[in-house]
Give the backbone structure.
Amino acid sequence: MKNSREIMEILEAYDLTGSYRAAAELAGCDHHTVARYVALRAAGESPVEREHRVRPIDEYLPKIEELVVRSNGKVRADVVHRRIAAMGFAGAERTTRRTVAQVKAQLKAGQRRVFRPWIPEPGLWLQWDWGHGPRIKGRQTQLWCAWLAWSRFRVVIPVWDKTLPTVVACLDTTLRRIGGVPTYALTDNEKTVSTDHIAGIAVRNPDIVEVGRHYGLSIRTCMPADPQTKGGSEATVRIAKADLVPAEANLLGQYRTFGELEAACRDFCTEVNARPHRETRRPPVESLAEERTRLHPITREPFTVAFGTTRRVTWDSTVSVEGARYSVPTQMQLADTRVWVRWHGDELIVTGVDDHGHPFEIARHHRTTPGTPSINDEHYPPRNDHHGERTPKPRTAEETAFLALGDGASSWLTEAAATGVRRIRPKMAEAVTLAKLHPAAEVDRALGIAAIAGRFADNDLIRILTYNIGREETEPIRPSEDHSLQPGTSAWSRLGSTATEDDTSARTLPSSVDDESESR
């Protein structure tokens, strides 16, 4: 079988010569082949189209089509080959695989959905969807991905969960970023939006209906298992995950804090909304300025009912819930302000609203009991007096002069105060006076020694100072091993003979002693 290039060369040779045999000599083929291709072209048929040849597997083609249709295109080619081999097919499995692939392609082409392209109108549709974000300190995050259909403006917000209050907070933030409210909002069939499906009709969550009424927004859901009805938000999720979630393809590092992920999402939105879109050839931020004229005004107050119940932050940056206290960050300066608290399982979520009406998460705590407050150390500034210990801080000129001597003076004051020493101030003044007569470093050293030894009497400081001044720091003298006062063992060699002589002398007493004993 000739390929298309060879066939075109044969036809060109015939057009040049006008003879079958001459064209055959130029093209290097038989003149009957030239005549056949010329006849096909003259009849209006494609000369390069291959003719179907009868194959042994054509006899089993109806059975193959039956198996593919019954399995909805999921049957494997090796299974089909075993079935038709049992029916008498003697061909190779490669032939069966090629035929099954052709039948599956025909089935897929016949089942392919054909729909009219959707042309969005300005100010009409907003879509949102969820995507798995990166893990921060072992905890999974979620990415809220919203997409304004006409202007292609994207909003990506990182959150910890997909509960209804979080959905409301993300929706409110999205509407305020785009500067208005569209007519419809399309999303997937989450439990926060659709609680059930009856006869193909989605039963809407009454809470989300109240949210839509608050903003003047009609919330719709797509068909189940039909992502083509919200392809824009699906693309936003795909692009956001590709640029924000660490992977080998983007070489991103792990996020250490949730704030880093929030900053990365803001930078991502700024970048994608400032570059021209592939479909419109315009930056979405420019199209948004035009679409805002078709959006409805957004309410000043956010929908806070879903945030929970209100609580007032006390002066010690805590809120009371069910008789138990929970801390909030002091850096936010929330004392005497109103916040919202709600339970999500055994976790308490504290939510606030900024000056622009944007909701934000303040803190999270695990459930505790009354009398056992849940206090997060990160919510408060670090303390210098650990475990009740205080660091001396001068408040008068005398105290400043004394503590300026060094760490020894600070230790002396701390130990003396803890011991209950009398007349501490006069002794501090004496140390300052001594520092004028002697080096301040020596006085501070003497104060440190006195603090360690617990010597706080009237003359202890001057005694320690006098003892230390003038002493040289020398190594201790160790006696040599060559000379020692310890007696040696050389006298032990005469131990036996010495003992015999002593015994003899002891038994022979002087005569004077004997006479004296007799006279007695």
Remarks:
- Residues 498-520 have pLDDT under 50 and may be disordered.
